[in-house]
Design a protein that fits this description.
Order of helices and strands: EHEEEHEEHHHH
Strand order of the largest sheet: 2-3-1-4-5-6
Structural class: alpha/beta
Number of strands: 6
Length: 175
């Protein structure tokens, strides 16, 4: 079992946090994981992406060129990464921010209005966690409970945000 994931969006959309939640939950389950982060020149507001690999075997490199899964938070990221996802791969698409849909027919697309859901919760910055919830549901590798368990660690110093992030995760998962 192995999944290679690119999470992409603007700086400030929580790309790093989403990757960290997935990676820490994988560790919680005893899986192997590694990842990297890449920022555009502007950081907040510029493009950013993180890579995360989750596997039941040792991982040789954190580099992900052709992921099995991409979590797309905005339109420029879809344009940049759609062609890179492997055939039969998965795109989880934030349709609140992406008005143009993927054109490929050899991939599965999960469309979720993550920003709209997050705004309805009262904080549009939790759209990334809505997307992680959708990832959990559709990839079935990382358990929902593992993410809930590692959330205090990942959000250390921001404990007041745990409750809203748990709600966002549940809504993305479909609960």
């Amino acid at each position: 079992m192995k999944d290679s994931i690119i999470t992409a969006g603007f700086g400030g959309q929580g790309v790093v946090l989403a990757g960290s939640l997935i990676a820490n939950a994988a560790l919680e389950q005893g899986l192997e994981t590694c990842g990297m982060v890449s920022y555009g020149a502007e950081m907040r507001g510029g493009t950013a992406h993180s890579t995360t690999i989750v596997s039941d075997k040792l991982i040789g490199s954190p580099v992900v060129v052709n992921p099995m899964t991409i979590i797309i938070l905005n339109q420029p990221s879809l344009e940049k990464f759609e062609d890179k996802v492997k055939p039969n791969g998965l795109i989880i698409l934030n349709t609140s921010e992406c008005k143009i849909k993927p054109t490929r027919k050899d991939i599965k697309v999960i469309a979720i209005e993550a920003t709209k859901i997050a705004e309805e919760l009262g904080n549009k910055r939790v759209a990334n966690v809505v997307m992680v919830g959708a990832y959990l549901k559709h990839r079935n590798i990382i358990s929902f409970d593992s993410v809930i368990k590692v959330m205090p660690k990942v959000l250390k110093g921001k404990e007041k945000l745990i409750e809203i992030n748990e709600k966002a995760l549940k809504l993305g998962y479909g609960e």
